[in-house]
Amino acid sequence: MEAILDYTLKASIGLLVLYLFYYTVLRSQHNFGFNRLYLLLAPPVALLLPLLTWPAAFSSEAAVTQALQAIQLQEITVTAWQVKPATNLSLPLVLSVLYAAGVLFVLGKLAWQLWQIRLVKHSVSTTTAINGALIYSLNSSYPALHLAKAFF
To answer: Which residue in 87, 99, 117, 120 has the fewest CB atoms around it within 10 Å?
Structure first.
């Protein structure tokens, strides 16, 4: 299991490095064929890089191993103890409060927008009625709006 996690981590870092190289260097290039080929070959190359064996000169593990051998840590004793919950909040309660806050925010935004439409409606200079629909002529550059039987 450790080998799989190690391989996945190395492949992910390799893919990140390859994509960062693309983002910083190749993204602004106009050779789209090469860019496409690079983007198509980057994932397989990232999967193959951890399988290659590197010479010891390029290996960072040798330096890390030498540094870790020089470090001596004191012994510690680990004992078990229970952590008491700080509050009596439960996940359903927190989610309910967040949901209610979202609903109140959206309803407040709707009320604000309806209030703004009311203010615009009362600030118009001319009103025309055509086939039962009211057409309000606005003095400002608002986009066209249809609300019930009113056109702005």
So the answer is: 87
